[in-house]
Amino acid sequence: MDLGEKPPAYAEVQQDEFTKQDFVDLMKHFYKKDWMTGTGGAMGIRIGDELWISPSGVQKERIKPSDIFIYDFKTLTILQQPKNQRIKASACGHLFVEIMKRRDVKCVIHTHSLASNLVTTERSSFFTPSNKWKTHEQEYIKGIYNPVEKRNYRYSETVKVPIVENTDTEDQLLPQLCDVLDEHPEATAMLVKNHGVFVWGDSWEQTKIMLECYDYLFALSVEMRKFPVASRTLIG
After folding, report:
1. How far apart (Å, rounded) are the C-alpha atoms in residues 122 and 133?
2. Which residue numbers delimit the Class II aldolase/adducin N-terminal domain (predicted)?
3. What is the pLDDT of residues 95-123, one digit of tens each?
4. Catalytic residue among 137, 139, 165, 223
5. Which of 15, 81, 159, 218 is found 20 to 30 A from 75 (Cα to Cα)?
């Protein structure tokens, strides 16, 4: 093997066919990480011509394959829905569709992790006047993709994530999301103040990896608050 050969991008790595059980397992995985507790959090994945969206108000550790909402992506005609009519599709659905159509990505994950909430607070030195969280010179930056450069970030580069104001319902975030997509072509995530984060990518694998990297960096930022000198080094 040529050790100088560049590895393929995450989205290009061929994986086994993605199933409804895989979707459910991912949701349960995020629940166990305390990212989707209290029925919060959501995920949307494009599988061929279909769009799979998680249900709202269902405890994530108890979600079943039959609870997934499936739509025709082009027409948004519903192809599968839970038998229980009280179960509704995630309120994030409109946001997922907007991101997927505008950025031509295949997956969006929304989580309510503690770290992604804390880094948006006004008391944080990481909440900059331009309403962006940012960091540089951290190893996990290299796990985040830059769609403008069409490569992952380098250790020496700065990663920025736009922060928007929270709203009463998640679908009301749409105007702010559109602004983020218009103004930040390099963004693969959006933080919502006192709420959580949305992360999107070219595949579920890439999106999951970036989500894990982002959340690690958010948690690191929170810890760095305790050390002012290190904090300044972290965000530049």
Report:
1. 11
2. 21-222
3. 999 999 999 999 999 999 999 999 998 65
4. 139
5. 15
Please give the domain boundaries of the chain with CATH numbers for all domains.
17-235 (3.40.225.10)
* Residue 139 bears catalytic tag: yes
Rounded Cα gap, residues 40 and 90, in angstroms: 9
- Cα dist. 66→39, 63, 110, 141 in Å? 17, 8, 21, 37
For 16, the token pair is 């086994």
Kindly give, in sequence order, each residue whose CB lies less than 8 Å from that of residue 149, ignoring residues fewer than 6 positions away: 186
Write out the chain in H/E/C secondary structure: CCCCCCCCCHHHCCCCCCCHHHHHHHHHHHHHCCCCCCCCCEEEEEECCEEEECEECCCHHHCCHHHCEEEECCCCCEEECCCCCCCEECCCHHHHHHHHHHHCCCEEEEECCHHHHHCCCCCCCCCCCCCEEEEECCHHHHHCEECCCCEECCCCCEEEEEEECCCCCHHHHHHHHHHHHHHCCCCCEEEECCCEEEEEECCHHHHHHHHHHHHHHHHHHHHHCCCHHHHHHHHC
Six token digits for residue 94: 């409109």
Q: Which amino acid is at 186?
A: E
Pair of tokens at residue 26:
């991912």
Phi-psi region of 151 (alpha: psi -120 to 50; beta: other; left: phi over 0): beta
Neighbours of 174 (CB within 10 A): 14
- Report whether 50 contacts 70 (CB < 8 A): yes
For the chain, the first-to-last Cα distance in angstroms comes to: 39
Amino acid (1-letter code) at residue 154 = R
